[in-house]
Amino acid sequence: MWRETVVLALASIGQNRLRAFLTTLGIIFGVMAVIAVVAIVQGVFYVYTSQLEGLGAGFMFVVSGNPQATEKIRQSSYVTAEDALAVERDVDDVLAVTPYFFDQRKLQLRGQTADAVIMPTTERYPEIQNHFVEEGRFFTALELRTRARVVVLGPDLAQKLGLSRAVGEKVRLYGVPFTVIGVMEEKNGINALGQQFDQAAVIPHSTALLFSSPMRGGMLLIKLDNVDDVDRLKEEVRRALRRSHRISVGEADDFQIVTQSEIIESVGKITGIATWVVMAIVGVALLVGGIGIMNIMLVSVTERTREIGIRMAVGARRQDILAQFLVEASLLGLIGGVIGIGIGYAVSWLVTAVVPEFPPPHVPMWAIVLAFVFSASIGLIFGMYPAARAARLDPIEALRYE
């Protein structure tokens, strides 16, 4: 019975292909928007969390400032290289700590200019970020102490400057020459602070302080040696920093400590909110699509009144008529959903192809299942009234209809 019902519904849709396509446009565009947005947002989230997980579970960073502190503390808050030494000295299970801040500058080499993310840090950066040198070497503790003008380039940055063999070249940064001593290995994606690894120029923190000041007071990157009790170590880091900053008992911290899991959780909440807000807005388009399906099904009932009368006359029950129109409406919604999923996925790939450095789209299975279920449900819900109207027709009156 159900097989015959589906065949009849498909045959009816096939006889009016253009009308069926126009009817499902609202569903198509609604589902397309949902899939495209989910693919793009989840793609960014997937790449970002993959990079964070690649740092290891024992990663955390400290930023200056605290919204709960007084205005005086917020304005005078700084995280310094001395704080990094205090944490490394006072917390036993810390593997490495580095002060860190970032800056946007231009690098110049023989007429070539490239925008770069400047990452001032210490010699401990590679083990903290799990990001190592591919060519040449990283700078040393001695070069950090002597404020050497050396730089390690990201591979994309070296390519933009036209450097096939970068080590030993002199590039201009902050208006003065820096010697290129290495090129980092390729590491697609962004770090915990949203910066492109492969477009970065890593320089000694002490050297950077000669030319630039940390925005918003700087930060610390911390890699833990023991990840069995991150909460305890977070509290130990907090106590070490309070002592370093000479904060009295009862006063609020003038810094914030954020762990890897907290970053992932926060980013997940943001992407989740963004996804559901867009889906709620797109729900209006799906509602319009459902109204379109109901409208065309009412027209179909009117056009096929005589056919309904003939089917009833030869033994079709009212539930058979009801099922036929409900299946037809559901199939219209489902077909629109399938087309919308395909177009939405294509649009998300188009966006990533057009926008440089954009992460590839990622469509989770729940989004596809939700699109299927929701589009079919829209057709079913909005097809109920036309189907009930068809099932209530009087067979004799239907046969008389011209």
Give an overview in words:
The chain is α+β, with helices and mostly antiparallel strands and 402 residues long. Helix content is 57%, strand content 17%. The chain has 15 helices and eleven strands. It has helices at 2-15, 17-23, 25-54, 71-76, 81-90, 125-129, 141-145, 155-160, 205-211, 230-245, 260-303, 305-313, 318-354, 365-391, 395-400, and strands spanning 59-64, 94-100, 103-109, 112-121, 133-136, 150-153, 170-173, 176-184, 200-204, 219-224, 255-259. Strands 3, 4, 5, 6, 7, 8 and 9 form a seven-stranded mixed β-sheet that branches. It has a four-stranded antiparallel β-sheet with strand order 2-10-1-11. Helix 1 (2-15) packs across helix 13 and helix 5 (81-90) packs across helix 10. The model has no long low-confidence stretch (mean pLDDT 79).
Residue share in helices?
55-70%
- Overall pLDDT score: 79
SSE order: HHHEHHEEEHEHEHEEEHEHEHHHHH
Instruction: Kindly name the structural category.
Output: alpha+beta
Uncertain regions spanning at least 5 consecutive residues: none
Beta strand %:
15-25%
Distance between the termini: 29 Å
Number of strands: 11
* Rg calculated over all Cα atoms: 31 Å
Rough outline: elongated
Number of helices: 15
| Sheet with most strands | 7 strands, mixed
Write the layout of secondary structure elements.
Blueprint: H1 2-15, H2 17-23, H3 25-54, E1 59-64, H4 71-76, H5 81-90, E2 94-100, E3 103-109, E4 112-121, H6 125-129, E5 133-136, H7 141-145, E6 150-153, H8 155-160, E7 170-173, E8 176-184, E9 200-204, H9 205-211, E10 219-224, H10 230-245, E11 255-259, H11 260-303, H12 305-313, H13 318-354, H14 365-391, H15 395-400
Parallel strand pairs: 4-9, 6-8
Antiparallel strand pairs: 1-10, 1-11, 2-10, 3-4, 5-8, 6-9, 7-8
